[in-house]
Design a protein that fits this description.
427 residues, alpha+beta, four-stranded antiparallel β-sheet, two-stranded antiparallel ribbon, 46% helix
Length: 427
């Protein structure tokens, strides 16, 4: 694993965390909230300095960061104040610590902010990760180019005995196609990308087809005869269509050719669908997270090979970055390595954006949900002519917050162990 790739990724992670927390800090200070601490990392403090009334610093474990907002919770709230042993409840302890933060400057407490200002402060962190992802995506797509299938021959598949006799040349090989050929037209249909090639093959038949290619700067015309292969029919979502429990199949032309993957620059506007697709896939992973963790744990306990689509932690992400910059692959250019690293950082920031919006304390989404509930209660009270019910006492959810925090810590430790013992490997 390349040390350079590891360092680049760590710096990218730290920058993403720092800017995330800055997204909370800036509006909080703008709205007059007392912010005693801004730290990158957790654990032992490595360095800190005080500027104004805020301590800025770096801690030893770079797995996150935090901005401590003074007066997060109202000083009084409902529910029990002590447990059956006479000790303060978690909610009462949280209120006490919150009040201590703003002692002598109670008018700078976070809980006094209006609902829109609370939402701005809490959404500022995830929003910053989204902005980072957008900027990096524009640099990647408009400046370097996004990975895409080109209208060039990347692979020639051998016959496997199912579609054509094993050991024989595939239709593509028999017709004279070679790796690196740029396909200009297939069966009279012009090809500007691999989708055009794929559609032309599918629309054709098992008869000699004229194919125009560019090889070593010269145009050539080849004659390729596809063979018919039985394939399942897929719906618009990529799922196999079935009838009475049986997969629906059809015969389609088979050539035995695969595309070359390359970088194709686009426009800044192309970053939007690119990020939308990444966000959609990230949301799907988050929804399936418990199942993914169970599968990862089961494979680890039984010593099974790690699934290629398993989730990874920050250690795993750093390993991938190291493999990207250190891989000795013929034709893998520095520009392509840079594109892959940028894509990794984009995915990381999209994950931070989506994950932090989960409506669970202590995540930002939990505080956002609390502010939205507060706004709903106040609006309902106004409509009914009732007194303002005041801020929502999210301190009462502290037991749930601790449970969620412990679950996240356990997940982080599990991913660290699995990433070290059974690291993810690029194939």
């Amino acid at each position: 694993m390349s040390v350079l790739g590891f360092l680049i990724l760590i710096l990218g992670i730290l920058a993403s965390i720092a800017l995330h927390e800055l997204g909370h800090l800036t509006p909080a200070k703008l709205f007059g909230v007392y912010v005693p601490q801004y730290f990158i990392g957790f654990g032992k403090t490595l360095w800190s300095t005080v500027r104004g009334d805020t301590e800025y610093g770096v801690k030893a474990i770079p797995l996150g960061g935090f901005v401590r907002l003074g007066g997060m919770f109202p000083p009084t709230g409902g529910g029990r104040q002590t447990n059956r042993h006479g000790q303060p409840t978690l909610a009462a302890e949280a209120r006490r610590a919150s009040a201590e933060d703003v002692k002598g400057r109670e008018d700078e407490a976070f809980y006094l902010l209006s609902v829109p200002k609370k939402l701005t402060v809490m959404f500022g962190g995830p929003a910053m990760n989204l902005v980072i992802a957008v900027v990096l995506a524009i640099i990647l797509i408009a400046g370097i180019g996004a990975p895409t299938y080109l209208n060039k021959v990347g692979t020639l598949a051998p016959c496997d005995g199912q579609v054509c006799a094993e050991g024989e040349a595939s239709p593509a090989e028999a017709g004279g196609l070679k790796v690196g050929d740029e396909i200009l037209a297939w069966g009279g249909q012009e090809a500007s990308d691999w989708n055009d090639v794929r559609e032309a093959i599918a629309a054709g038949s098992a008869s000699p087809t004229e194919v125009r290619v560019l090889r070593d700067g010269a145009e050539l015309t080849l004659n390729i005869t596809p063979v018919l292969a039985t394939r399942p029919v897929l719906d618009s979502s990529g799922q196999v269509v079935t009838e009475n429990g049986t997969a629906v199949t059809r015969e389609i032309p088979y050539v035995g050719v695969g595309p070359e993957v390359g970088l194709e620059p686009g426009t800044a506007a192309d970053a939007i669908p690119y990020l939308g697709d990444m966000l959609w896939r990230t949301a799907g992973i988050i929804i399936r997270l418990p199942m993914k963790l169970f599968q990862l744990t089961d494979d680890f306990i039984h010593g099974d090979e790690r699934a290629p689509d398993s989730i990874v932690g920050l250690v795993g992400v750093a390993q991938v970055a190291g493999q990207i910059t250190g891989a000795d692959i013929e034709g893998y250019t520095a520009l392509e390595r840079t594109a892959d690293l940028l894509n990794l950082l984009i995915a990381l920031n999209i994950s931070l954006f989506a994950f932090n919006l989960l409506p669970l304390l202590p995540l930002d989404g939990g505080h956002i949900a609390g502010a939205l509930w507060e706004g709903l209660r106040r609006s309902w009270a106004r409509l009914r002519g009732r007194p303002d019910p005041g801020p929502v006492d999210t301190a009462r959810l502290m037991p749930l917050s601790y449970a969620v925090a412990l679950a996240f810590i356990a997940m982080t430790l599990l991913l660290i162990v699995v990433d070290i013992v059974n690291p993810v490997t690029l194939r």
